Amino acid sequence: MLSVNNLPLWPDVPAGLTELRILRPGGRMFLAAHEKWLPTALPALAHTVLAAGFTSVRTWTWQPPTRMASTTALPSAARAHDPGGSPPIDEPPNAPAAAA
């Protein structure tokens, strides 16, 4: 899932992130938005992403090479696997158990 410059328009960021449960387990999401328009600081946004059930959260910023563009915030994460639920994406549903 890719979202560019619309995160600041979400009326409820935690609820919006929770709605991304439509991603299958292990699915990736990537957000990009002008840092100055984020609804919260980037570290706080990372904690909100974790609280919404994502793992492997990474954040960084990028400064475009022009004077007119502002710094871009770039958080990404993976949807957590369902505990006791579906297998990881790389495993077919009827895969034989691994040998011990």
What features would you describe in this structure?
The chain has 100 residues and is of the alpha+beta class. 17% of the residues lie in helices and 27% in strands. The protein contains two helices and four strands. It has a four-stranded mixed beta sheet with strand order 1-2-4-3, covered by helices on one side. The longest helix is centred in the middle third of the chain and has 10 residues. The radius of gyration is 16 Å and the shape is globular. It starts with a strand and ends in a 21-residue tail after the last strand. 12% of the residues are buried. The C terminus is likely disordered.
What is the tally of helical segments? 2
| Secondary structure: helix percent | 10-25%
Main sheet characteristics: 4 strands, mixed
What's the total number of strands? 4
Strand order of the largest sheet: 1-2-4-3
Q: Which quaternary structure do these chains form?
A: single chain
- Low-confidence parts lasting 5 or more residues at pLDDT below 50? 85-100
Overall mean confidence score, pLDDT: 83
Q: Which secondary-structure class do the elements indicate?
A: alpha+beta
Cα radius of gyration in angstroms: 16 Å
Our estimate of the beta-strand percent is 25-35%
Shape: globular
Gap between N and C termini: 36 Å
H-E order? EHEHEE
Brief sketch in words of this structure:
By secondary structure, the protein is of the alpha+beta class.
Notable traits:
100 residues; alpha+beta; 4-stranded mixed sheet; 2 helices; 4 strands; 17% helix; disordered C terminus
